[in-house]
Amino acid sequence: MCMGVSKDGRVAETDDILPDGYELKKGDGVYYISYAMGRMSHIWGDDAEDFKPERWLNDNGVFQPESPFKFIAFHAGPRICLGRDFSYRQMKIMTIALLHFFQFNLADKTRKVTYKTMFTLHIDGGLHLLAIPRTK
C-alpha cells in the first residue's frame, strides 16, 4: 500500500488463526482494501466518510496519530513503509507552502468528487481546482 496502493494482501506460509478466530490453511490468501477500511464506520465512527481532519487531533488540538494497524495506508509492523516519515514531512511542507500563497476552490462547485479504484487510488475525472493567489 505504500505510495498510494489502495489494496494489498498476503499468503499464509503456515496454518494459522486470525485474531477473530478465522482459521487459515497454508497457501490461503488474505487481502484487504485500505480504501474501504478508511471508510468503515465500525473502525472510524458514524462519520467515517466525512472529511474531518480534526479527527487526528486530541482534545488539546495536538496531532494524535492512530495505530498503524488501524490507519493502514503505510502498512504496519515489520513491513511498515520505509518512506512513511519522509512522505509525511513532504506533505506538511508542500501543504504549508501552498496554503500560504494560495486559496483553493473547486473549479465546478456542483460536481461531486468520486474515486476510481485502480492499483493506486485516483479521483475519477481528476480534481479541478482554482488556485487564487493570496494578497498580503
List keywords for this structure.
single chain, 136 residues, 22% strand, oxidoreductase, metal-binding, heme binding
Q: Would you kindly provide a brief summary of this structure?
A:
The protein is an alpha+beta fold and 136 residues long.
What's the layout of helices and strands?
Blueprint: E1 7-11, E2 16-17, E3 23-24, E4 29-33, H1 34-37, H2 41-44, H3 84-101, E5 102-106, E6 115-117, E7 121-123, E8 129-133
Antiparallel strand pairs: 1-4, 2-3, 5-8, 6-7
Describe the structure.
Its cofactor is heme. Belongs to the cytochrome P450 family. This is Cytochrome P450. There is one protein chain. This protein is α+β, with helices and mostly antiparallel strands and 136 residues long. It has one domain (2-102). Helix content is 19%, strand content 22%. It is built from 3 helices and 8 strands. The protein has helices spanning 34-37, 41-44, 84-101, and strands at residues 7-11, 16-17, 23-24, 29-33, 102-106, 115-117, 121-123, 129-133. Strands 1-4 form a two-stranded antiparallel ribbon. Strands 2-3 form a two-stranded antiparallel ribbon. The chain has a two-stranded antiparallel sheet with strand order 5-8. A hairpin with a 3-residue loop joins strand 6 (115-117) and strand 7. The longest helix has 18 residues, at 84-101. The radius of gyration is 19 Å and the shape is elongated. The mean pLDDT is 86.
